[in-house]
């Protein structure tokens, strides 16, 4: 693998994991804030709010893991290497 392909792979992997975790991180913060606000307004709905929050956080975390997988593929199983 030449140095240009190697450098592009490292930069692409950094962008994949960086941008891939930025959106879900912001989404998780917003979801947690909304859940706290919902709990403050209706404490009796705690079980429903908690269940919905945990399911949505799991889906958001899956997006971050997809970014990690793309970054690892670019670093270790590079499809662009000759």
Brief characterization of the structure:
With 82 residues, the protein is mainly α. It is 85% helix and 0% strand.
Structure description:
The protein has 82 residues and is mainly alpha-helical. It has one domain: Up-down Bundle (F1FO ATP Synthase), CATH 1.20.20. It has 2 helices and no strands. The chain has helices spanning 3-41, 46-76. Helix 1 packs antiparallel against helix 2 (46-76). The longest helix has 39 residues, at 3-41. It is rod-shaped. The mean pLDDT is 90.
Name of the CATH superfamily: F1F0 ATP synthase subunit C
The CA-CA distance between the termini, in Å, is 6 Å
- What sort of overall outline do the alpha carbons produce when their principal axes are compared? rod-shaped
Q: Total helix count?
A: 2
Fraction of residues in H or I helices: over 70%
The CATH class turns out to be: Mainly Alpha
CATH topology: F1FO ATP Synthase
| SSE-based structural type | mainly alpha
Mean pLDDT: 90
Unreliable stretches: none
Q: Over all CA atoms, what is the radius of gyration?
A: 18 Å
Taking the sheet with the most strands, its summary is: none
- Proportion of residues in extended strands: under 5%
The count of strands amounts to: 0
């Amino acid at each position: 693998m030449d140095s240009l392909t190697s450098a592009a792979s490292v930069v692409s992997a950094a962008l994949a994991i960086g941008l891939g975790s930025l959106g879900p991180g912001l989404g998780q913060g917003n979801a947690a804030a909304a859940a706290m606000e919902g709990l403050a307004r209706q404490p009796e709905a705690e079980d429903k709010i908690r269940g919905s929050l945990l399911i949505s956080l799991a889906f958001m975390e899956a997006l971050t893991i997809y970014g990690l997988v793309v970054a690892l593929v670019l670093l270790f199983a590079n499809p662009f290497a000759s």
